[in-house]
Amino acid sequence: MTPATAAVNGSPPQQPPAGREPVLEIRDLSIVYRAGDAEVKAVDHVDLVLAPGETVGLAGESGSGKSTLALGACRLLRPPAVITGGSVIYRGSRVAKEGVEILDQGSRELRKLRWREISIVFQSAMNALNPVLRVRDQLGDVLDAHLHLKRDEKRERLETLLDLVGIPRERLRSYPHELSGGMRQRVMIAMALAVDPEVVIMDEPTTALDVVVQREILAQIVELQKRLHFAVLFITHDLSLLLEIADRIAVMYAGKLVEVGSAEQIHNRPAHPYTRGLLGSFPSVHGARRELAGIPGTPPDLRSLPPGCPFVPRCRYAAEPCRSIDMQVRPVSGSDAGHLSACPFVVPEPPTGTRQPQAPTGAKTAPGRSES
Amino acid sequence: MSASPTRTEVLPAAAARGPLVLEGHALSKDFRLSRGPRGSVLSAVRDVSFGLYRSAVVALVGESGSGKSTVARMLAGQERPTGGQILLDGAEVRPWARRTFRSYKGEVQMIFQDPFASLNPVHTVRYSLRRPVRLHQRAKGKDAIAAELERLLERVRLTPAEQFLAKYPHELSGGQRQRVAIARALAARPRVLLADEPVSMLDVSIRLEVLDLIDELRSQFELAVLYVTHDIASARYFADDTLVMYAGEIVERGPSEDLTQQPAHPYTQLLVASSPDPDSLDRSVARPASAGAVRRAGSALSTTVGCRFSPRCPFADDRCRTQSPPLLPINSQRAAACWRLDVAAPELLSETGEERSVPMKT
User: Is residue B7 in a domain?
Assistant: First the structure.
């Protein structure tokens, strides 16, 4: 509740739990893709904060702007993407106390910040790793760029890094194509952690992997985080995964933040109709069979968004005022602190509502199955 | 029992919905490897038998490389099995043969994972749909074809049809493209639909709609559906029966709900335990999915002896490492290929008593 984190533009303060000073603070960030005269708003006035050691999940479908937001916050975007406004402040323990405005940094300063302070694990490790370099050389490059280590120290550090992510040391000599998909992703994680950053952005790190390997990698991330205390911004389209691993979850739709809350709030008291729709869309192998609903309609076309709430065409609660509302997240009435939603009209249903497991006799337990 | 070539004497739940349409019997597929030890052979699929029944969905679940897509491709006639037979209405067919290919395609159609790759980007939806309508239906004349195209698009809920017919694939969303692919498969008026990961490339919010659509078409046209997926949770909701593949073999089969809620084979157990549990909010992701599971992929090399899951299996003993376990019935509807079910799933065995006999396999 410190005023230091009070938001710009009168948007409500969005704070990490326990009032800790955020390590990464994204305020009112807007990013557009310019194509000729046309502009596509990929990220539209988004606020997001990340506390030290916290895991924040960023959920959204393809085209929702989740990756653009993360890449923009690291200044990794290239034209036609342009950051049109906002601020991204990094406050790690190794930088000045008032923090660093990432959007103002020149390329030399950025090079120092990247990996050292903020690192990224990309979805496709096969594309992110250099196919003609051995694991040792790729990891070594990161160390050389940021630390001045003697040869012995460097070798030791490389071996420790592989131990950290559970890869046998002899794999240092391997090329990426000699590793399995899971191992490549582990190498990516080792590389992201190589110089001890305080923020790690994970952009769909497990999406391309099989569930068993996915779970092993997630377990590894959680364990490493406990030991090394870095903060994670975890981007994925899979909300079910986030409910398990994230402290807080932010949901994006059509470039806008639609809901923010703790995993518990999002699970038990989802406020925004889109979040509710997402929660009702995926089948789970665990627990009783429940009613699945899905979200009708098609994902939004960012080139021609309707005014007001972009979810209106697919929303079953939509009414006339929705077409003119200002998409700003506000505290959810009736919920506890830190739970914000962009929909002022839908009040969260009590916990006994939408997500109550249904008996198998439910109307539509299997999708659309009508007895023939 | 001898009338049916299916060796495992289980009665699939899918059989309750309708008669057997398409059957794979002891299907195998070997790929000769150009690298590695001389003459080494990868058996991508080994001895896989199952049937597809009218109006029923059978799911084939497995990780990448388990051979599930190869099975679907063999049934579609796109890959020639190195062993086993394919039976349509009880008669052996050779769908890969040039003479039978087209008539077989009129009965068995396939939809693919990537709707971006499966539609020709330089042609309109009309073009993509008109060809199968002409080839497989006796629809003659412009008007009859136009009416049929419209009907097809309405069936997959792409309306107004006229507007979608004129579009190119890049003008459609992923979900719409997959609907076009489904419409194209329906154009042949098939009795069997093979769906290879039909929703895994789509956004979460529209996956359910596409699955719902396939299910609706299944019941409307009494389609026998094979649903190939890596997502065992969707198999639970969508399929009557589920077959779990590991390293080219079926390791467990049974009614989807029973199999997912009480998995017998240690691999199925690992798969279920690894699936996200949205109701677990305590970051229990750190829980080991299976005690002692070793991180080593199962080998599908033909030289591998014993159970292919044994290197990762917490229950493996000497027999597992030397003898390959056959797929044996657990009860009237379920079967599993595991020597150690007494340890892995004791509660399942005690339910049925000790009726799991061990026939000698030569």
Answer: no
- Say how far apart CA A138 and CA A125 lie, in whole Å: 12
A288 touches chain B (CB under 8 A): no
Same domain for B219 and B80: yes
| B280 contacts on A by Cβ (under 8 Å) | 243-244, 286
For residue B185, tell me if it sits in a domain.
Answer: yes
- Same domain assignment for residues B133 and B161: yes
ipTM of the complex: 0.81
Q: Give one DSSP letter per residue of B199-224, joined into a string.
A: TTTS-HHHHHHHHHHHHHHHHHHT-E
Q: Which domains does chain A have, with CATH numbers?
A: 11-117+198-211+232-372 (3.40.50.300)
Chain B: closest CA distance from residue A337 (Å): 18
Do B121 and B265 share a domain, yes or no? no
Residues B72 and B200 in one domain: yes
Domain that holds residue B71: 19-253
Please, are residues B206 and B37 in contact by the beta-carbon 8 Å criterion?
A: no
Q: Which two tokens stand for residue A285?
A: 């192998």
Q: Smallest CA–CA separation between B155 and chain A, in Å? A: 15
Going by C-beta distance under 8 Å and a sequence separation of 6 or more, which residues neighbour residue B269?
B263, B290, B344, B345
Chain-chain contact of A240 with B236 (C-beta, under 8 angstroms): no
B283 lies within 8 A of chain A by CB: yes
Burial, B268: exposed, middle or buried (Cβ in 10 Å; 0-12, 13-18, 19+)? buried
Neighbours of B98 (CB within 10 A): 7
End-to-end CA distance of chain B: 19
**Would you give per-residue pLDDT tens digits along chain B (362 residues)?**
334 444 456 888 888 899 999 999 999 999 887 766 666 788 899 999 999 999 999 999 998 889 999 999 999 999 999 999 999 999 999 998 888 888 999 999 999 988 888 899 999 999 999 988 988 876 678 888 999 999 999 999 998 888 999 999 998 888 899 999 999 999 999 999 999 999 988 888 888 989 999 999 999 999 999 999 999 999 999 999 999 999 999 999 999 999 999 999 999 999 999 888 877 766 555 454 443 344 444 556 666 788 999 988 999 999 999 999 999 999 999 999 999 999 999 888 876 544 454 444 43
Residue B305, classified by CB atoms within 10 Å of its CB into exposed (0-12), middle (13-18) or buried (19+), is exposed
Shared domain for B126 and B247, answered yes or no, is yes
The reply to whether residue B285 touches residue A222, judged by beta carbons under 8 angstroms, is yes
Nearest CA among B253, B241, B323 for reference residue B9: B253
Question: Cα(first)–Cα(last) distance of chain A, in Å?
Answer: 59
Note which residues in 160-199 of chain A have CB less than 8 A from chain B: 166, 180-182
Whether B26 has its CB under 8 Å from any CB of chain A: the answer is: no
Q: How many domains does chain B have?
A: 2
Q: Is residue B360 part of a domain?
A: no
Do B110 and B90 reside in the same domain of the chain?
A: yes
**Residue B29 and residue B138 in one domain:** yes
Please tell me if residue A361 touches chain B, with a CB cutoff of 8 Å.
Answer: no
Residue at B5 is within a domain? no
Q: Which of residues 90-129 of A touch B (CB under 8 A)?
A: none
CATH number of the structural domain spanning residue B152: 3.40.50.300
Does one domain contain both B39 and B166? yes
